[in-house]
């Protein structure tokens, strides 16, 4: 992951931008024309799981329960990817701040 990447899922400027809220949107000056094998594998696995639930022989009630659980889990999985990206950005900012301190400076963190 980096601030600028041709892989959309790895480009923090793109991935952390809010498409609905202009104040939280950042434009990239590069195309996102490459893909990551692992990110694409995750997307494919989730699609295959959804198809599998639809193709399995189970009652309609069981299928509805499975699909409900699955559809609630997918956003959580995607939120975890965003969390990892945010953690990386936070670590970079903390490192940059600490590197800029001299012997007469102090950095206070309140969590």
What would you note in describing this structure?
The two termini are 25 Å apart. This protein has one domain (8-99). The mean pLDDT is 85. Helix 2 runs antiparallel to helix 3. The protein contains three helices and no strands. The chain has helices at residues 12-15, 37-55, 60-99. The longest helix is centred in the last third of the chain and has 40 residues, at 60-99. The protein is mainly α and 111 residues long.
Task: For the structure shown, list the relevant keywords.
single chain, 111 residues, mainly alpha, 3 helices, 57% helix, elongated
Largest sheet: none
Q: What is the tally of helical segments? A: 3
Helicity, as a percent range: 55-70%
Q: How many domains in all? A: 1
Let me know the number of strands.
0
**Which percent range describes the beta-strand content?**
under 5%
Mean pLDDT: 85
* Order of secondary-structure elements: HHH
> In terms of per-residue confidence, which ranges show pLDDT below 50 for 5 or more consecutive residues?
none
Structural class: mainly alpha
Report the end-to-end length measured between terminal Cα atoms.
Answer: 25 Å
Coarse shape? elongated
Give the C-alpha Rg: 20 Å
In short:
About 55% of the residues lie in helices and about 0% in strands.
Topology (SSEs and partners):
Elements: H1 12-15, H2 37-55, H3 60-99
Helix pairs in contact: 2-3
């Amino acid at each position: 992951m980096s601030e600028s990447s041709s892989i959309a899922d790895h480009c923090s400027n793109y991935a952390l931008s809010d498409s609905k809220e202009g104040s939280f949107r950042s434009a990239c000056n590069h195309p996102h024309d490459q893909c990551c094998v692992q990110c694409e594998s995750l997307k494919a696995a989730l699609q295959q799981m959804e198809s599998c639930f639809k193709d399995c022989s189970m009652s309609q009630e069981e299928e509805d329960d499975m699909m409900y659980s699955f559809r609630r889990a997918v956003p959580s999985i995607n939120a975890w990817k965003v969390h990892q990206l945010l953690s990386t950005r936070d670590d970079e900012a903390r490192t940059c701040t600490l590197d800029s301190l001299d012997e007469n400076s102090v950095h206070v963190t309140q969590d």
